[in-house]
Amino acid sequence: MRRLISLSLLLIVALGISLCFSGAYFGAEGANRAGKLAQDRVNFGQRYNSRGLEENGAGNIVASVVVNYRGFDTLGEVTVLFIAAVGLAVVLSTRREKPARVRAEPASLVVFTGCRFLFPLILLLGSYIFIHGHLTPGGGFQGGAVVASGFLLVYLGCRGKGLRSAGFTVTESLSGLAFVVLALVGLAVGGSLLLNFLPKGSALTLFSGGVIPIIYVAIGLKVGSELGSIIANLSGEAP
Amino acid sequence: MVSPILLIAVPLGLAFITPLLGLARKGAPRYVPAVAMLFNLLVSVSLLPDALRAPIVVRTAGWAPPFSIHLVAGPLGLLLSSLIALIGLLVAVYGMDYIREGATTRYHVLSILILVGATGVVLTGDVFNLFVFFEILCISSYALVAYWGDSASVEAGAKYLIQGAIGSSFVLIGIGLLYGAFGALSMADIAANVSSVSSFRLFVSLAFLITGFGVEAAVFPLNAWLPDAHSSAPSSISAILSGIAIKAGIYAVARVVYTIYGAQSILPFVALLSVATLLIGEMCAFSQNDIKRLLAYSSIGQMGLIVFGLAMASATGVSAALFVVISHALAKALLFLASGYMILRTGSREVSSLNGMGTRMPLTSLCFTVGAFSLVGLPPFVGFASKFMIVRAALETADTFFVVLLAIALIGTVIEGAYFLRIVQGLYFKPAPQQAREETRKEPPLSALVPVGVLAALIVAVGLYPGLVERALGAAANDLLDRDSYVQNVMGD
Amino acid sequence: MSLLSPSIHYVGCFSLVLIGLYVVLVKPNLIKVIIGINLMDTGVNLFLVTVGYIQGGTAPIFSEAARQPEGMVDPVPQALVLTAIVIGVSVLALALALTIRVYGHYGTLDLRKIKGLRW
Amino acid sequence: MGAGAILTVALAGAGLSYPLGLLSAKVRNVFATAVSALLVCLVAAAYGRSGEHVYYSGFLGLDLILRTDALAWFFAITVSLVGCLSVVFSLRYVRGREKVSFYYFALLLVNAAMLGIVFSGDLLSFFIFWEVMSWAAYLLISYNRGRALYAGLKYIVMSIIGSCAMLVGLLSLYAAHDTLVISELAERIGSRGTGFLLGVLVAFSIGFGIKSAMVPLHTWLPDAHSEAPSPFSAVLSGILIKMGIYGFVLVMYALVGLKLLLGLRGAWVSFNSVLCWLGAIGILIPTFIAVLQTDAKRLLAWSSIGQIGYIILGMGFATSLGLTGALFHTFNHAVFKALLFLAVGAVEYRTGGVRDLNELGGLIKRMPVTFACALVGGLGLIGVPLTSGFVSKWLIYKTLIAEGHPFLALAALVGTWGAILYVYKLLHNMFLGQLPEKYAHLEAAPFTMRLPLVVCGSIIILFGILPGIPLGAVGPIVGSLGLEPVQATLTGFGPQVGPLNMVSIFAAAALAVLAVLLVLRASAAPRRVAQEDSYAAGSPVPAGRYHHTVRFYDPLEGATIGYLRDWADEFYTRVAGGARGGFDGLRRIYTGDVRNYVMYIVCLLAFLIFVQMVWHIW
Amino acid sequence: MVTRIIQLLLSPLIALAVGVLFLGLSRKIIARIHRRYGPPLYQPVIDVIRMMSQRSISHGSLFELGVVLALAGSLVTVLFIPLGGTVICRQNPLAHGVLCPLSSSGGLLVVMYLMLFGPLGLALGAGDSANPNASIGVSRKLLLALAYEVPFLLVILAVMSHYRTISITEIVARQQESGWGVLSVPLSAVAAFLILPAMLGIRPFDLVSAPQEIASGPLAEYGGSYLALLAVQKGVHLFVVIALYVDLFLGGGVNLATFLVKMLVVFVAAEMIAAVLPRIRIESAVRFCWKWPTALALLQMAITVLSKSV
To answer: Which of B420, C45, D324, E176 would disulfide-bridge B372, Cβ 3.0–4.6 Å?
Structure first.
């Protein structure tokens, strides 16, 4: 019964969606771009692609969009992640009675050593990714995620090696604050939040893109530490 | 002149450093939300007069509106953000002493963020940004609902999360369709071009957006999470959820329907839904035994009233709805806050455990009564003025459809009167349960009495002088209804 | 086929969405429901990317090799998707945490039995 | 010094009484008494001045206006008088009980709100004061705990229904005519069709009908009146339900106006004839239900519904005679019903809350003044000549006969016989006959309780003999409402109305009584003996109680009990019960299974899409 | 003025005399029908005088006051009833030769109300005695009154709507002009006659005082002068009721003598019926009153209303 109702409801939805994309509504040649119908309008993407480099000095237009044009979203996005970290801690920390935890067997020496060896490399890779976010694919989030995967590796491979959540807390707070402060400096300097107030530098070099790399670094740190603290919390080592 | 963007940035920054403060001094974080919201309140109120003249459009990253995210601090946005800051401030003060167990620092962080989310929702002028702030609001409320960590709150949190996640996926689909159609994300930009796209496609996106945002707005039949979540959350959070969060949801729906789509023709359906919401809410509340659940269902009912007002699509209707938003926020926050300590003292959420509170916690009970009367719509409290405006607006439409719906809606308010006034009777005229503990004979601490008292005073004050908000209401309604000027304000000429 | 081929991306991502939705609607296991939500998220994210895709387009990244903006895909949906993914992850994390707690309280993940709160 | 000052005093008095009570009970009592007495004085001093001024400009875009005219003053003096008496009576009645400060606050607030109602010059402030009155009354009705809670809830729920209807009515007027000021509305009101006007009037009638306990909207009243504290029952029955009457008069005559009102008719019925018939039913059935009551206050409560029937009957006729009678009866009923409730209250106070008519008796020996006053009140209620009730009822009968409605007149006259039955039962079972042992040493009612009784009693007699005094006040009202004022003389009516000379009747009666007394005097003097001496020859009666009170009207009960039920109440209760069950069933849609909830969400989405696919709504 | 005063004194005296005489007559008629000799006509007068000289007991002031109220009320009622005489000028009821001292005050409605005083005074006085028999009697009395009052009111209303006035003198005048009420409202007259025994408190409706079962009911504890006064009151009440009947249906009287003759006829007719009937229970009485007389009266009233509205 439940399946039947569900299926019929989904069928209606699917029908609606498919009608919405079918040729009758779409036009024959515009199939590759949903936005074709708005062609006569100045298109965001085109504009960013054509002007982004000169406006922000960052080679990675996506980075430019993420940090500058839609930087406010990113601020929110970071906040969401922050909320997830904090919320997770809230949910898990109010546990009244700790379930009896099966003490995991420590990992074998090979795994342990391998993980310890890989951990700094992974951190380095992550840092590379977010430092070069304005030039190459990737950025703060991706880099941060890579960094966090390092912590995950430590959790998985180096059982018993605790993750210190205080460090995460400090890092995420400070990097988050850095993001906000940078944004506010833009407001103070140019009357607009997240303004790219630093010199743009020469395009396609590391020191280009104004505040974008700096913010990306902050984001990378923040994402890394937040995901790290999520891992720490989920692994049950959190306070 | 301060920028409205500080309303978001400053509390956000404060939220980010709160954990650090918590590490430094154990007691410090509990003051942060109050500080943040005080700041917001001052800024919003100081900006409001300007916004009434012309909406303040704030660009980010220095680019002109369509090309970057922008905030539109219009009368509506600032009115609501003032309300958010006000309720937030009072709840924050209340939370100082109320929240003693659990991860208190994180509670305070989240309580700022939930308010930031709501503020962002009402101020933003970008549809995707709306989604982001919406998620900030939702996700922090998922976590806060589960704050107590008992089975009910965790269950409520999980269910809320599932429904909310579905909702946000829908929103995202809607936004994707919109972007596909217009290649734009600025609401004004989209609004300016809505007529250029075939309507069915748009309608599908509209349906997704309405459904998605509607989940948070607690419109029937999307409101199943609400009673669970509102009743299981800490009372301070219930106050925020009921007073603010669902209002943010309804704001989002209204923005989408009015400003982006200008879809007046679906409003009769919305009106039907609203009346259904109202009736369902009131009917469910009627036989509730759990005071917080009762209040939660009553919130659903009031949401129905708000949506009903909005669905009239007339200036009076919308301003009436906004007035209900205000009156309900004040009254419901008051009720949740007042009942919070009653529940804490008696250790029971049964309605009957409130019996005899009139003598044991006289001030709290008095304020509770004021709130209840206001919700029922009795003068001289603000609920009356708002109900009055709703009825007036409905009758001014001179549309039989709305008059009939109004009659049904009024039945809902009668039911509401029945259960609220029964509680009030219990407060004053029923003997306290035999096993009432001795410590129940104590007023809550000052940090709780002050917000409750302030809310009660506001209810009376605005009830007596609706002129305090009336002008802003009119402008806000215009803000919502007048698409052309909205577009013009944002996009320049 | 010619009608379908331009829309094949959309068919794919919306199938994911609907499958996810179906899972949420039908499966009684909380974990599976969360998986369903994630499926939906994935579908939605794919949809967003698809919206900005130009057939045969390149990544919107300037480099020494690619200095012309022509042929680059729309960067905005990519930025959006980035955000959407992060939000999805956050929700997922929170959902899992809540699942742990729910399991702790109820000893089951069967949604038909997790009915402490109703009417 | 007009309505504004009076209202300020009234509201401030209500507001201050609570904090004063926290300081000292004595100060509060003195203060409350002083305020209510001051109100009487102020109203009396300012009586008759007419005026209109805005006191609050721009409440939701509307101006709130105070207006005083003949109608307002008439009701104002009634309100302040009964209010004052009930406050005085309360001094002892509530002494030593819980929440006394709250009691005074609510009591004064009700009175203030009622003054506000009558002084309102626009419908919005009318409505606001109306609602304040409603909730303050609700708090007071609930004051006695226990069953009073149910009564209070019933009252307020019905009140809210009424006020919703009223709100719709008055805002329809606003939507149509863009003003709520009564004087402006009265000019514009005819511009919409009669259908609209009828709808508005029906909406108002529901509101006013509920408040004034017009059958079949009366069901809150028996519970509320009997469970409320007695001084407040007096206010409730005496003046609060009269606010409904005031509303009727205001809307029907001042607002809609006579010409339009009489135009509201279909082929067979007209608006006011429906009202009249409801009034007649309201006389007949409740009166006989009252006859069967065993609770003194419940009996009086049902009697109030019956008397309201008279007023509505008189008012519905839209003739000067009828309206005069209705207004006069409004005043009379306020006085004698207040008196009766207060008398019962005094008995209740002394006997420790006993209102059961089967447990009392013989109290005339302990509380003679209370009895005498209750007797006068009862006679007034019946409408015996030489009480003011007679004159007003006479006017109403006269109307009915003159207008050629003998069936309505029959209802009214039979109702009077019902009134005789229950008044006698009340007096007999409480005051006459055997004094139960436990009340043998009862004290007389305290002075502050006797005083209001005596005042009311004197008014009844005075206005019964010299009806010209109140009729002089009613005349201008009737005149201002567009009808020819009734030509009244000080002692009654001249030949145009149908001659009535109360003084001559009084003189004849006095002479007759004198003559009979003389005869009695001439005969042998009687010997006072104890009651038991003659019935049981001085021996103790085995059962202790031989006074016949239980099921006093048993034969009638047997013959009519099947019909004399509160059908309306049963119907409403059933509806409410059904609704409750329905609500409980409806609640089950929140099954607790989150998948269902998601289903609802998808449902809405699918519904919206479906609707668009099929009907293309957008 | 002098005539007024004379009338004021005269009519109660007539009522007293005729009423008491009727009491004797009643006993005589019943006795004769029962084939007994019966007491002399003046027996009630003797009784009254005897009782006046006896010393009575009393339970309190209301016990005494009730009697006073009853008798005074009945006497006052008489003042409002025209006791024969010709109407000289209909337009000005004051300038006529009707023996009706207070015709200018209120008319039929006042009479109906004043007729209350008798039962009410008696009820109050008797109620104060705490004697259950008295209470039961009062209860019966009031219920019976209610029972006959319904058809009686219908009758009166029919008459009043037929003549479109509430003034008795006018009704009488109209009858003298255009024929008796018996002819113009015949069903009402029949109905009124049917309830006449109930109004008079004679058989089969003498259940109020029913000496055998409830020891004379309200009168149970009264003795001496009070009983005497009550006996007189009964007589006056008798007079009032029959006079009213004559006024309403038999066109009053051209002068006092014809009036009294008509009264005698009505009274004897009523008594003759009463004499052959046993006492009935109160329930039966109520049922009877609400059945035939009410139906007849209703019918008449419907006819009247319809004929007036056509």
So the answer is: B420
Q: Which domain holds residue B327?
A: 266-481
Quick check: E9 contacting D, CB < 8 Å? no
C-alpha–C-alpha distance, residues A200 and B119, integer Å: 33
- D234 — contact with chain B (CB < 8 Å)? no
- Give pairs for D14-19: CB < 8 Å, separation 24+: D14/D105, D14/D108, D14/D109, D14/D111, D14/D112, D15/D105, D17/D101, D17/D104, D17/D105, D17/D108, D18/D101, D18/D102, D18/D104, D18/D105
Domains of chain C: 5-54+70-106 (1.10.287.3510)
Prediction pTM value: 0.91
- Chains touching E (at least 3 CB pairs under 8 A) are D
User: Up-side HSE of residue D47: CA atoms within 13 Å toward CB?
Assistant: 18
Whether B376 has its CB under 8 Å from any CB of chain D: the answer is: yes
Helix (H) or strand (E) holding B486: helix B483-491
B363 contacts B453 by C-beta, under 8 angstroms: yes
Nearest-by-Cβ selection for B69 from A19, A70, A195: A70
The parent domain of residue E263 ranges over 2-40+82-104+136-216+236-309
Asked if C25 and D599 come within 8 Å (Cβ–Cβ), the reply is yes
A31 touches chain B (CB under 8 A): no
Residue closest to B255 by CA, chosen among B58, B139, B120, B160: B120
Residues D541, D433: contact at Cβ < 8 Å? no
Question: Which of D595, D599, D606 lies closest to A13 in CB terms?
Answer: D606
Q: Is residue B70 part of a domain?
A: no
Q: Which residues of chain B have pLDDT under 50?
A: none
Beta-carbon separation of C118 and D602 below 8 A: no
Tens of pLDDT, residue by residue over D44-79, are 988 888 888 888 888 888 888 888 888 899 999 999
Longest Cα–Cα distance of chain D, Å, equals 104
**Residue E90 above 80 pLDDT?**
no
Instruction: Please tell me the predicted confidence (pLDDT) of residue E91.
Output: 47
ipTM of this predicted structure = 0.89
**For the residues E123-131, what does the mean pLDDT come to?**
80
DSSP D437: G
Average pLDDT over residues E225-249: 85
pLDDT-based confidence at residue A33 (cuts at 50, 70, 90): very low
Number of domains chain E contains: 1
Closest CA to D599 of B209, B153, B224, A20: B224
Cα gap B263→B268, rounded to integer Å: 11
Cβ neighbours of residue E47 under 8 Å, at least 6 residues apart?
E228, E231
A23 and B CB contact within 8 Å: no
CB E47 within 8 A of CB E36: no
D contact chains, 3+ CB pairs < 8 A: A, B, C, E
Burial of B184 (0-12, 13-18, 19+ CB in 10 A): buried
For chain D, the domain total comes to: 2
User: Which tens digits make up the pLDDT trace of D358-415?
Assistant: 888 778 888 888 888 998 999 898 888 888 888 888 888 888 877 778 788 888 888 8
Is B139 touching D (CB cutoff 8 A)?
no
pLDDT value at A38 more than 50: no
Residue E228 covered by a domain: no
* 3-state SS string for D286-310: HHHHHHCCCEHHHHHHHHHHHHHHH
Whether B3 sits inside 8 A of A187 (CB atoms) is: yes
Tokens 């039907």 label which residue?
B272
Give the nearest partner residue to B16 out of A93, A180, A192, using CB atoms: A180
CB of C74 closer than 8 Å to CB of C54: yes
CA distance D225 to D221: 6
Distance of CA B106 to the CA centre of its chain: 22
What does the mean pLDDT of chain A come to?
78
Task: Report the pLDDT value the prediction gives residue A122, as an integer from 0 to 100.
Answer: 92
